[in-house]
Amino acid sequence: MSFAEATTASREILTGLHDVMASRNHAQGKLNRVVEIIGEALSSEVCSIYLLREGVLELFATLGLNQDAVHVTKLAMGEGLVGVIAESGRILNLDEATSHPDFAYRPETGEETYHSFAGIPIIHRERVVGVLAVQHADPRPYDDVEIEALQTVAMVLAELIASAELIDESGTEAEIARQTEAMRLSGQKLVIGMGEGKAVFHQPRVDIEHTVAEDTEAERQRVYQAFRKMREQIDALSNQAEFGVGGEHKDVLETYKMFAYDEGWSRRINAAIDSGLTAEAAIERVQQRTRARMHEIDDPLLAERMHDLEDLANRLIRIVAGQLGTAAQLGLRNDSILIARNLGPAELLEYDRRRLKGVVLEEGSLTAHVTIVARAMGVPVLGRVPDVRRLIHQGDQLLLDVEDGSVFVRPSPTMVEAFEAKLTRMQEKRAEFEALRDLAPETRCGKRLKVMVNAGLREDVATLNMAGADGIGLFRTEFQFLVSATLPRREAQQKLYKDVLDAADDKPVIFRTLDIGGDKSVPYLRAETTEEENPAMGWRALRLSLDREGLMKVQARALIEAAAGRTLSVMFPMVSEPWEFDEARALFEAQRVWLEDHHHMLPHEIRYGCMLEVPALAEALDELLPRIDFLSIGTNDLTQFLFAADRADPRIAERYDWLSPAILRFLRRIMQATGEAGIPTTICGEMGGRPVEAMALIGLGVEQLSITPAAVGSIKAMIRSLDATLLREQMREWLAEPPYDMRQALLDWAAQRSVAIG
Questions:
Q1: Edge-to-edge strands, sheet with 74-76
Q2: Is the dihedral of CA 573, 577, 578, 583 positive or negative?
Q3: Hey, what's the torsion of the CAs at 108, 112, 113, 115, to 10 degrees?
Q4: Looking at the structure, do residues 510 and 599 belong to the same domain, yes or no?
């Protein structure tokens, strides 16, 4: 079937369904006529409609199967091909139905003569309420255009079924709606923090009441007007947003503009209108296709781009429907926790930050744009909470504890008491830590240590003075690249680096060169960075930068120009062998010479260092140390490489303890080598931000930590209560003969000496 034939067939079916919906026939009679219309238009030998009744899929109408099977054939959710479609919400398109492992034969239907099978979920208000299935005797898969036509028909069927009152409200949705008991939901920790407030849905639901168009041209004009209005909104948001003026969010909004002005997207919506859908139904139809593609995408960045497109589609459908206000535009009236399937960063920026206390997402990821922006805003985010928009009701009281990976819904008095106690303790601790802000991290034995912070956004630099840190031990330059739809220009990079140095004033800043690639893919390098079986150990960081010299040359020049008249400290990530450091340093030096020859003002000193994340580099320290000015140990990657354990895999992420003697002995060997060579060495990563782990590191001889700003207070408190000399003696004994449980041994030792570890 050609595209034109499919469009014509869709229009014929929709016209026929419109007449059926307007008829005075009873519900069963309407469904009987529907399967005839679909079968005739698509030349299908079988067309059947199954509806969900009391948790079971019941054959309600059929053309081609035995009529005696109607209301007799029933399948449980997940049973047979129809049950699998209903349970998963996914399409099945098979040239041989019996070859599918979930095929279930029902003799009363007489379907044994049919081979090909296609099934489409019928979805009403984001819930599967039935399945539309077609079959042929010939073993052939259905064409994409035929599937498209069936998906369009399924949308209209949902409206017909709802108007005929055939949707079973005794099922899951109604049962959930009646729930009033307290519950705890778990999810992925995206942005750590605690928050309390009323549940507010980001998008008030737009119910599409009419799917079949009366006047196709009028519907097309409605879409054109909605596109114009949406583009005006995105342009205005880009010009007026106050958050991070001139900063990274501008790049995110450029991605939105790219989609908003994408002709391909508008063409697909027009094609759906041509098939006979209303403007709202056409946008939803294209959006359903986008969601289906999301399930097939492995590339996290490409999936994030698809979420950006869905964000805009939601905006467009609200404009067409005349429901213009998101929760942000309508205004938050109380302290609120935002609930959404996913959230675009542009929409997050619209919220009143004084009343937005947290975000709970059904989807979301650590690398999503909205996570980057939320972290800079200081808004806690919990992601990957299944069915959150059905389990939580508008206005429910919520307690969000991302550190615990939980959100408490309609909390019981006991839950509230425990949460408030934890929040009070956290606030009391924060007050104690604030009192330490201007005090040095000096041990009881008089050892002055350095506690610095990790940063990645321009706004993060403000935490330096608020936390009382000694400087920025790791500035992740890749954030500017991750939130940009195009390669950031040298001028934009230079401005960011200069702003960071200005804000840091006289405190040191160590810039890490680009760590992109692998799981941090960017659109302008996607063709070269996808399809890696193990991206964490693939073409990323310095490996990518040395191969794509243009990237590093631009960044080198931007950094050198930004640090004119100052000290520039730059370190290279993912160094595996000394020659890689040599090549990167030579590339920077070539840019310095070029700028000097062209009479540019230069830094008065450039300090070069590298990150030790690859265990192989530890075996070449005798070659490396004479060439570098400083070393940083990246404990996150180093740990996963030492244990061959993917830290992104929840099944093994916490299996291997940072306080394992294997890790501690490895780190001690590095500290001994760098100490003998007189090379300053910093621990960068989560390990240094945890009091017990940081205490162990100090026992190994570590004197510099670079950690998340939120951890500075607790680490300072631990340092100021610690006798490092005694601890180092004890660590020597423990590493010679490790205790059964190193963590417990450290905890007991700290408790006996009143060390503040939590």
A1: 74-76, 56-63, 46-53, 127-136, 116-124, 92-94
A2: negative
A3: 130
A4: yes
In contact, 578 and 623? CB cutoff 8 Å: yes
Tokens of residue 573, six digits: 């990530």
300 found inside a domain:
yes
Domain that holds residue 138: 3-174
The rounded distance, in Å, linking the Cα atoms of 741 and 731 is 13
Q: Is residue 438 part of a domain?
A: no
pLDDT digits (tens, 9 = 90+) for 667-703: 999 999 999 999 999 999 888 988 999 999 999 999 9
Distance CA(621)–CA(610), nearest Å, equals: 12
Residues 121 and 22 in one domain: yes
Average pLDDT over every residue of 80-102: 90
User: What is the helix (H) or strand (E) element at residue 128, kind and residue range?
Assistant: strand 127-136
Measured CA to CA, the distance from residue 305 to residue 577 in angstroms comes to 35
Do 387 and 363 contact (CB within 8 A), yes or no?
Answer: no
Beta strand 630-634 with 381-383: parallel, antiparallel or unpaired? unpaired
d(CA 98, CA 295): 25
Per the listing, tokens 């342009």 go with 235
Rounded to 5 degrees, φ, ψ at 128 are: -70, 125
Matching residue, tokens 């500290």: 671
Q: Judge whether 60 and 49 are in contact, CB under 8 Å.
A: yes
The vertex-735 CA angle with 730 and 737, nearest 5°, equals 95
SS3 510: strand
Read out DSSP for 129-162?
Answer: EEEEEEEESS--PPPHHHHHHHHHHHHHHHHHHH
Query: How many whole angstroms from its chain centre is CA 381?
Result: 10
What are the Cα distances from residue 280, in Å, to 75, 218, 221?
33, 12, 12
Asked if 35 and 144 sit in the same domain, the reply is: yes
Q: Give pLDDT, residue 242.
A: 39
3-state secondary structure of 447: coil
Tell me the two tokens of residue 635: 């404990």
Evaluate whether residue 446 is within a structural domain: no
Tokens of 681: 């060495």
Query: pLDDT tens across 19-78, in order?
Result: 777 777 788 888 898 899 888 888 889 999 999 988 899 999 999 999 999 999 999 999
Give the number of C-alpha atoms closer than 13 A to the C-alpha of residue 403, restricted to the C-beta side: 10
> What band does 338 get if pLDDT is binned at 50, 70 and 90?
very high
**pTM strictly above 0.70:** no
